[in-house]
Amino acid sequence: MSNLESLKFFWPELILSATALIAILSDLFYERKESHKVSFWAIGGLLLTFITIRLFGGSSVNGLFMGTMALDPFSEFFKILIVLSTIIVMLMSFNSSELDGYRKGEYYTIMSIMAFGLVMMTSAIDVLMFYVAIEIVSIMSFFLAGYLKRNPNSNEASLKYVIYGAFSSGVMLYGLSILFGLTGETNFFAIKNAISQLGPDSNLALILSIVFILVGLGYKISAVPFHFWTPDVYEGSPTSITAYLSVAPKAAGFALIIRFFNIAFGSNSAMGSDEWSSLNSLPWPFLIALLSAATMTIGNLVAIQQQSVKRMLAYSSIAHAGYMMMAIPVMSQSGIYGIMIYLFMYMLMNLGAFFVVMYVQDKFDGENFDAFNGLGWKMPLLGISMTLFMVALTGLPPTSGFVGKFYIFAAVIEAGNQYYWLAFVGVINSVVSLYYYIKVVRHMYFEGERSDIVSLPESKLTTSLVLVLALPTFFLGWYFSPLVEWANNSLNFFLGI
Amino acid sequence: MSNILSWIIWLPVIGMLVISLIPRDNSKIIKQIAAITSGIQLLLATYLWQVFDSSMGEMQFMERVEWIPSFNITYILGVDGLSLPMVLLMALIGFIGIFVSWNIDKAVKGYFSLFLLLNTGVMGVFLALDFFLFYIFWEVMLLPMYFLIGMWGGPQREYAAIKFFLYTLAGSVLMLIAILALYFTCGNTFDMLVLMETAPVALNGMLWWGMSAIKVIWVLLFIGFAIKVPVFPFHTWLPLAHVEAPTAISVILAGVLLKLGVYGILRINYTMLPDGVFWFAGALALLGLINVIWGAMCALAQKDLKKLVAYSSVNHMGYTLLGMSAVIAASGMNGSNLISAQAGVGGAVFQMFNHGTISAMLFILVGVIYDRAHHRDIEGFGGLASQMPVYTAFVAIAFFAGLGLPGFSGFVSEAMIFIGAFPVFRTIVIISTLGILLNAAYFLWAFQRMFFGPANEKYNDLPEINSRELFTVIPLAVITLFLGVYPRPFLDLVSSTLNLLIESVVTIGGYAGNL
User: Fold this and answer.
1) What's the pTM?
2) How far apart are the C-alpha atoms of A230 and A244, rounded to whole Å?
3) What is the pLDDT of residues A439-460, one digit of tens each?
4) For strand B211-212 and strand B60-68, is the pairing parallel, antiparallel, or unpaired?
5) What number of CA atoms fall less than 13 Å from residue A359's CA on the CB side?
6) What ipTM does this complex have?
7) What gap in Å lies between CA B185 and CA B177, rounded to an integer?
8) Which end of chain B is more exposed for a tag (fewer CB within 10 A), N or C?
9) Shortest CA gap A311–chain B (Å)
10) Do A427 and B177 touch (CB under 8 A)?
11) How many CB atoms lie within 10 A of CB B308?
């Protein structure tokens, strides 16, 4: 489809890029201390984007912009996830005292541009578009991680992020160029056709290129062994940005992995693991399963030792990437919608947990476990919500976290007994994670003084945002049919392409 | 009342919501609401018992509501002769537990809310017939229990609470794998009644890594349940949790929560994996024996009265395992001895109920003396019989019931278990009768040290057991004595269901050699 024709399917992205431009322009007209008002434009634009995504919902068009983008319910699911989490993080940032003293206009502008990049990642079906989208996201994340320019930790975070990011996208680009050399194509579907023509003598090159591409994508979802940047970046960044980095790029990264590997290296109608592995002589599913087991185990074991809740959540987000990766080697439909359901649940509970951490950090001046002492007695709403988020992150019923894990484990077990060991590693890891998550609860309720004066957060926005995240975390644990249906439908269309 | 089971399960949550609306200063009203809620629940459970048709072994009062159709998850409840006694026990202990905790003054609102939530979780496990629902209720119990031990417990409460939590969670996640494996291999359903039919057929001859799938699933489920029972070597969380928990929570823990494990084995392992029963029965009997002897020996060595009672639970639950293993007596290979299978399994279920009432009584009485003397050191007392005669009388009843003296219900169930298991596991039964002797030794020795001998001057003016405490102990003592003399009503209640259970295990399950 030609570029002009494609534009009419591109409304959400157009609105999103217009939002970023309007945000920049509007920032010129605000005083320094009024600069946070840029967020109204940004949030307004994102809401408009959300509405247009819904309006175009259900339609499925392939090969937009000369075969570089696809519009399908699969990308719609992820777009909604990304736009929602961007809106929530922007609202979270309103009351963040970390950002005080900085000009906030740019902050919201950069976030809008990042959201644009993430949305592009979910619908790219061309290697070039895929690379450009990843770079937009990466560069914007470097800005955001280093946004607290007078804070050395934040600078360190940004610098580490840049070095790791540049290195891994370099490696990935190398992998992509090998792939281009082999196939002479950039479109995922064309690559797939070209690969099927290749003889066995190009297997080595193909394997090399896949490993290199995995380096880049593994870095985006912070899978072991490409996770080393995560804790430092998460710790140094402003907490709101940490929350954002732990959710949105991960979602987009998974969307891209699923799409790229399914289309280019799998049979896109029926994703059988046979075809997936027969493509090359290495046992790919096993390799990714191993990475997944390593990711969750290392994430969990290191999280146990952390003194800072923020850093603990950073490591735990590595572990969560590991749980989600469990469903990739299975390469079944239920595996993919397991990941989608998990991501949705994870967005709610992880943003919620980071939000409470951010509040405690601002209010009680510390992000260590001790800062949480007695919080449950002082502020019951925050205490109960945080308990809920922690329990959900552990994956205990009746919370949404359990539902996410349940679908992932179900997909792994459905694949047959060659993956039971992976499910076993997964559940044991959930038990291990209980130890550090419940530590937060212990500090909130068992340590510190019990106060008789109960209070709510001063700002109504804080209270309502906590509720907005906590209530679905609880109720989706009881009734999750609509979400499952939605994920399932999104996938049917994706498979039908 | 067509959905009486739902009412029994969810009533405590309603009570909890009402409590959450009351300002935290009105601790009296909060306690009253908790008492009323459990009282109504007890009445409903009694009504259920009255309208229950014990001549029928099948599920009764079934409820079935679509829940998550895309995953075949359904809200199914039902009650039969195996779950009804447990429901009655929970309703009774839950009601008594409210009065046992009447003296709680720290964060009353939180305590009673969590107490009621725990009640819902336990009831749900006993009544759920959908595996997904069962698992949710199974896990719902953990968080309230963690808080109840960790917040209102003794000096080492935090360690005890996290140990309890980690142990039981480790068991239940293994169960989750087994549940999912059953789901995908046996026709995509969580409906337990359907699984009972399909699982033995579907799993027959299936091999995983050269092992029989039945064995793998059996072991995964068994570990999950064994941690709750607790079966040696998974019992180490129990003494700690008991000692640190506040009295009412120890009562619930020993009185009802330990039964969940045995209930699970009977409800799930026995019906869905009957082949596995034959494979595992010997190990089950042996584990029962170890529990009996190990628990008794540990109890003998304790200086802390509460720890002694806690280890006596390990000992008593050992008998239930032994009784359950007797089911294989009814198979042709073992001489089709239906009577001893009935005696064994019936004895196991009866022992569960009796241990519920007896250990609840023991823990309440330990709490009574602890509230007054602020320690539980057996050696620290002496001659209490002259200082607190009424209390002494009740302790005597509880101790005698605990050691299995004829005339108390514990004797009947233990005798049934021995009679049932004797034809199949002769040596094990003979050795485990030693446990009875050790039982008598630790209970009587503790009794002697605490209540006889020279009186400890320090405790001359200890107040006698008060009427609230008597109110909590007397019903349990009456039940124990009544069922000890006339166990028939209980056995009639459970026998039809257990006969069906034995029949299905024996006819569907082949011989261990088939695996």
Assistant:
1) 0.92
2) 13
3) 999 988 888 777 777 788 788 8
4) unpaired
5) 25
6) 0.90
7) 12
8) N
9) 22
10) yes
11) 23
